[in-house]
Amino acid sequence: MAHDVAVIGAGPNGLAAALTMARAGLSVRLLERNDTVGGAARTRELGYLGAIHDLGSAVHPMALLSPFFAEIGLRDRVDFVVPEISFAHPFPDGRAGIAWRDLERTVQALGADGNGYRRILGPVVERMAATSDLLLHPLLRLPRQLGALTVFGLRAAQLMVPGLGTGELAAAMIAGCGAHTPGGGRGPAATGAGLFLAAAAHSGGWPIPIGGSQAISDALAGMFVEAGGSIELDTEVTDLAQIPEKTVLFDTSPEALASIAERVLPQKYKNILTGTRRAPGSCLIHYVLHAPVPWRNPELADAGTIHLGGTAAQIGREERRVRTDVSSAPYAIVSQPSRFDARRAPEGKHVLWAYCHVPNGNPADLTAVMDRQLEAVAPGFTDTIEYSQAVTAPGLASQNPNLVGGDLSGGATDMRGMLVRPTLSTDPWRTPAKGIYLASSSTPPGPSVHGMSGHLAALSALDHEFGIHR
User: Buried b / exposed e across 413-430, counting CB within 10 Å, b at 16+?
Assistant: First the structure.
């Protein structure tokens, strides 16, 4: 018996889409190829008994800023630890930029760099609610608060001028946030994303879910089932003929949508999907340590996230390099979640999550490079390693086919990539085929765990397919 709606893919966006449809009173089934829900927001034991690792995302600033997550009360279902230090940016000489949740404490700690840091971030932090509403919706809509847009745009434009208004340490801190968007771009999309992420560090903070990213996915799945939905795991969809439902939402890559729905999509639109521009891939290293990381600067032990990579100029150079070549000194993102959630590792042990960017699809195993990057700011780090497992860019794609070539961003994240996602449209989730919608991070507002891409796709489907306006 067919349901009203089928959702293919149970990542955060597929879960959000399914939950939105179910709460509108429709019968919905959710199909997932893996044996657990979550997509890139999954957590599981890998090769070391009792050590629990995040397979993709680990720290979730957007979870506290997402309008959809606020609407459904996610924080009532998931316990988050919000570290007092959102992120830190160490230099090998022992200096470190410490991004406390308290902006003024951060400014004071930065000394001579502090005023420039405050000048850039302060006005955005003050308008964070309006800025979140702006950026976690499609860019092609009339913003509700033009003041927030103006302030954000001016600060993002300022950051596009290298070194303007900040000292070396503050500039590196902001560049480290910007490099979460891979490829080393200096356009408005990359600088805007970095500005938003840095500002989030001083408003809601950068939370770590107790139990790992899986806790978010499981909470969404639980709410969906409570709303009457059904989940079918270990169910891979390769052809739309497998799906009797007339309305189908795809939390998949654009390329997968083109393949699965090939017989109903116009050729021109399929060409758009298969021509998706891809961001660099990633190489992720999972560590188990027999002692905490011996940071040269002990304050780093209290940071939820650490950025490695040196100065802003060095980060930009190496991120541009990874568009086509493997870096020998890459920018890296590191988190030690067991510092905040002891259940993530056996007693006396710690898990460490670290990744850096590589050319899309490149199979390089950068364990030795990551060891060296960490050793430079934490002398003796390599002596603490008890176990490590690398997941290369192709390995990420094998775990989750949405991560094409190891691309964690759902496609290029320059200005063109954020506007044309996958098409330039005020309703980019709706395809030319009746009842077929794309609901993944390859649609606005793009990457991160916020559920908004799936939620907005569901709202479009509710409107066009069922006449339900929300």
Answer: bbeebbbbbbbeeebbbb
Binning pLDDT at 50, 70 and 90, where does residue 148 land?
Answer: low
Count of beta carbons in the 10 Å neighbourhood of residue 87: 28
- How many helices (H) and strands (E) the chain has is answered by 17, 16
CB-based contacts of 233, cutoff 8 Å, min separation 6: 10, 32, 34, 35, 36, 37
Cα–Cα nearest to 36, from 58, 14, 61, 51: 14
Nearest of 425, 432, 462 to residue 264 by alpha carbon: 432
Do residues 67 and 80 lie in contact, with contact meaning Cβ atoms separated by under 8 Å? no
Taking a C-beta distance cutoff of 8 angstroms, is the pair 122, 104 a contact? no
Question: Could you tell me if 331 and 182 are in contact, meaning their C-beta atoms sit under 8 angstroms apart?
Answer: no
| Structure confidence at residue 134 (pLDDT) | 75
Dmax over CA atoms of the chain, in Å, equals 67
Cis before 422? omega within 30: yes
SS (H, E, C) 402-420: CCHHHCCCCCCCCHHHHHC
Q: How confident is the model at residue 89 (pLDDT cuts 50, 70, 90)?
A: very high
In this structure, what DSSP letter does residue 172 have? Answer: H
β partners of residue 81: 208
**DSSP-based three-state secondary structure for 232:** strand
As given in the structure block, the two tokens for residue 452 are 């908004």
Dihedral (Cα; 294, 299, 302, 304), 10-degree rounding = -90
Whole-angstrom distance, CA of residue 106 vs CA of residue 118: 9
- Please report the pLDDT score of residue 158 as a whole number: 67
Q: Report the distance separating Cα 70 and Cα 72, nearest Å.
A: 6
pTM: 0.94
Q: 94: which 2 tokens?
A: 């022992």
Report the C-alpha gap between 467 and 114 in whole angstroms. 52
